Every structure is written in structure tokens, then in C-alpha cells.
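Figure 2 data, in text form.
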Amino acid sequence: TVEDESPFYRKIYSYGIKNINKFIKPKKEINILDLGCSSGFFLDIAKQKGWKTFGIELNEKEIEIAKQNHNVKNINLHEAQKEFNLKFDVITMWDVIEHVKDPHKLLKKIRKNLKPGGLFFFQTPNMNSLAARILKEKCNVFDGIEHVNLFNENNINTIAKKNKFKVLLVESV
């Protein structure tokens, strides 16, 4: 159940916010957009930090839960600036980018929705992780159905550079 997973995700999401805080300038109000925000659990934690929270989600049931505490819409990213009427200090994606067919196109849209000096933070499975190396084809990273792109530190750096992003930190969880 979600309740059983809650301490795990709270720990992961709190660690993500700690890392985001390392790289953003403190200011009165931080606008954060979470792409694929699900029921808004990460946004709940961000809101507890005093951040102004926004989300994009495709699953209507998840949107109804997230909308109780956050400004969440079922829209495409290219509509975000118009729909939310602002650009964002931070845009996040938690285990979503590996499902995106064209990450270059996505990164261009993310860049357009970030304020100057804004931060894009994402978590994705690492195809070179210890689990992936041990489990090989049995590892869910290599499902070949949902994960249409596989990432590691090298191709993250390559895609970031190609799309005018500077990689500030890469870690394995």
C-alpha cells in the first residue's frame, strides 16, 4: 500500500529537496513544477518547505488527490507557462524521463519553462547501477516496454550539454 511506501518516498524526496536547496538561491518564494506528480506526495513535502507547488499529471485519479493541496493540471508541458501564468524556479521529474520517447524535445520545453538560473532535477534508474549489473536482463530497468530510454552518467552529461544544461550533481541512490 501507499502507506507502507510512505517512509521510503519521504526519505528519497526529502533528500532530493536537500540537493535542490544546494543549488538554488534562497528567496522569498520558490515556484516548483513536478512533471508526472502522481498524487502529489513530493509536492506535499516541497509545500512543507514553503515552496509554491504546481504539478502536471496524466492520471485523472491521481490528479484529483493532488489537486486537494496543489495546483495540478492534465496538460502538456508546452502549455504550462500559459496555464500556470509563470515560469518556474525548479522543475522536477521523479522516475519519468526514462518513459519519454524524445528527451531532447522534453529538455527544450523544460528550459523554456524555467526562470533564468532555474534548476531541473530528475531521478531515473541508472543502467550501470550495481543492481543492473548483477541482475542483468532480470532487472526492471531493462523492461523494454515502459523504459524507452536508459540513462547513465555519461549519456546524462551528453544530453544535458546538447540541450544547454549544466550538470551539477549525479548520484546513485
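Caption note: Residues 2-23 form the longest helix (22 residues).
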